[in-house]
Specification:
With about 240 residues, this protein is mainly α. The chain is built from ten helices and no strands. Helix 6 packs antiparallel against helix 7 and helix 7 packs across helix 8.
């Protein structure tokens, strides 16, 4: 079977499962909604970063992206649906590539739209406080928002394939990003900048210091995602459905 019908079948699964069809709008809604009140907060802080303040909704919004990436894969393991999928598509690499495509492309597009909506809305709230943002910085923030959310969703998809459980992925990744990453950051110092969430979110800042820049930070997040996907595919190839 060629790649196109496999991709169509996986896209159909996403459209017909209610939990998946709700996850993508949640990414857009959370990123936009949480950026608006942040944009209206105190701007007198000497460390005030108008770009990150405008896109601060990405921090809670990534939870919805993680949930989407995990649900797309974990839905296959409910009721042994994976057996039917792999019986229809014996080429596991082709099936896995189609599965990852329906994770990556929608999250990327929704991430772009959410980043743009959040930036425009928060800028209206910030007013003159955002006047120093250049066009290049704003484009970088919006593009980086989409790419970061896509990578974090792929990271979740890879872990779910490895664990064969969406619950295990969410139980591991969500607490790590919300709590553990900051605790490690306080203890590890500059090394914490190489954690997947902290490295990738550098692109959302107007100014940045340290070893990584906006695009090298996203590269680090991409390497984390690739590592999870390789591990997940290894598990998929070695274990019977």
């Amino acid at each position: 079977m060629s790649f196109t019908p496999v991709l169509r079948a996986e896209a159909l699964k996403v459209r017909t499962l209610r939990s998946l069809s709700c996850a993508l709008p949640a990414v857009f809604a959370v990123v936009t909604a949480f950026s608006v009140p942040a944009g209206g907060s105190d701007t007198s802080d000497p460390d005030f970063d108008p770009l990150f303040r405008a896109l601060s909704g990405v921090w809670p919004g990534q939870i919805a992206a993680i949930a989407y990436g995990a649900l797309v894969v974990s839905s296959e393991y409910q009721g042994n649906g994976i057996r039917l999928s792999l019986a229809a598509v014996p080429q596991r690499g082709r099936w896995f590539a189609a599965k990852l495509t329906v994770v990556a492309v929608p999250v990327l597009l929704v991430g772009f739209a959410a980043g743009l909506a959040a930036l425009l809305t928060a800028r209206a709230v910030l007013g003159t406080a955002a006047a120093g943002l250049t066009t290049g910085e704003q484009v970088r923030g919006v593009v980086g928002c989409g790419i970061y959310l896509m990578l974090i969703a792929l990271f979740a998809a890879g872990l779910t394939t490895l664990f064969r459980s969406g619950v295990a992925t969410l139980s591991t990744l969500v607490p790590f990003i919300l709590v553990v990453s900051f605790v490690i950051g306080d203890a590890a110092g500059p090394a914490a900048g190489f954690l997947p969430d902290q490295a990738g979110q550098i692109v959302l800042h107007q100014e940045h210091g340290g070893t990584l820049g906006p695009w090298t930070g996203l590269t680090v997040t991409a390497l984390w995602a690739v590592a999870a996907l390789v591990a997940g595919f290894w598990r998929l190839r070695r274990r019977d459905a």
